[in-house]
């Protein structure tokens, strides 16, 4: 893992590694259910401090609340939204994320594995891609690197 230095108090901004993805998942009320390691690393919180808390715990005060009202209005209508968000790290630093808020429903719980698989397959077909190609483009890696990650030697 590359070393990470918190910004000094003068320049306060955390610059994100464009090769890494910040990911979190909330319930329909905005309560954090999941955050990946990079998210946790950047925001500076421990997992136990964030799980079960409202996602707005990392909302930077510079972000107008109306942006989140519009965001939630759109999500409650079942529509996705892309937006730029300034987040607040535990130590007072900030970081910018271009984020994609998606409404996801637990298709497996509602309709079973077959429906979930069909949804995923249809999505890849609609985008003229495959799971492997999707992962490679997301991570900006080659087929060899992907094969290495999925091999027993990794």
Q: Could you write a compact summary of the structure shown?
A:
The chain is an alpha+beta fold. Helix content is 38%, strand content 15%. The protein starts with 23 loop residues before the first strand and ends in a 5-residue tail after the last helix.
Can you put this structure into words, describing what you see?
38% of the residues lie in helices and 15% in strands. It contains seven helices and four strands; from the N terminus they run ββαααββαααα. It has helices spanning 37-43, 47-50, 65-76, 107-111, 113-126, 131-139, 143-149; strands at residues 24-26, 32-35, 81-88, 94-101. β1 and β2 (32-35) form a beta hairpin. The two termini are 15 Å apart. The mean pLDDT is 80.
Write the SSE topology.
Layout: E1 24-26, E2 32-35, H1 37-43, H2 47-50, H3 65-76, E3 81-88, E4 94-101, H4 107-111, H5 113-126, H6 131-139, H7 143-149
Antiparallel strand pairs: 1-2, 3-4
Features:
154 residues, alpha+beta, 2 domains, two-stranded antiparallel sheet
Number of domains: 2
Radius of gyration: 18 Å
* CATH fold call of the largest domain: Beta-Lactamase
Q: What's the count of strands?
A: 4
Largest sheet, strands/sense/barrel: 2 strands, antiparallel
Residues in helices, as a percent range: 25-40%
Spatial sequence of strands, sheet with the most strands: 1-2
Taken in chain order, the helices and strands follow as EEHHHEEHHHH
User: What structural class results from the helix and strand content?
Assistant: alpha+beta
CATH architecture of the largest domain: 2-Layer Sandwich
Instruction: Determine the CATH superfamily of the largest domain.
Output: PAS domain
CATH class of the largest domain: Alpha Beta
Strand proportion? 5-15%
Q: What global shape is seen?
A: globular
Integer average pLDDT: 80
Q: How far apart are the termini?
A: 15 Å
Please count the helical segments. 7
Low-confidence stretches: none
């Amino acid at each position: 893992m590359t070393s990470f230095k918190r910004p000094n108090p003068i320049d306060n901004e955390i610059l994100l590694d464009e090769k890494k993805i910040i990911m979190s998942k909330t319930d329909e009320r905005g309560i954090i259910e999941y955050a990946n390691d990079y998210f946790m690393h950047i925001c500076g919180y421990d997992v136990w401090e964030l799980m079960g808390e409202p996602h707005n715990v990392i909302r930077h005060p510079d972000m107008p609340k109306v942006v989140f009202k519009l965001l939630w209005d759109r999500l409650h209508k079942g529509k996705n939204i892309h937006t730029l968000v300034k987040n607040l790290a535990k130590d007072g630093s900030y970081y910018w994320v271009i984020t994609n808020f998606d409404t996801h429903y637990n298709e497996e719980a509602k309709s079973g594995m077959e429906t979930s698989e069909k949804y995923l397959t249809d999505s890849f077909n609609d985008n003229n891609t495959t799971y492997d190609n999707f992962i490679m483009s997301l991570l900006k890696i080659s087929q060899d690197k992907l094969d290495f990650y999925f091999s027993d030697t990794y």
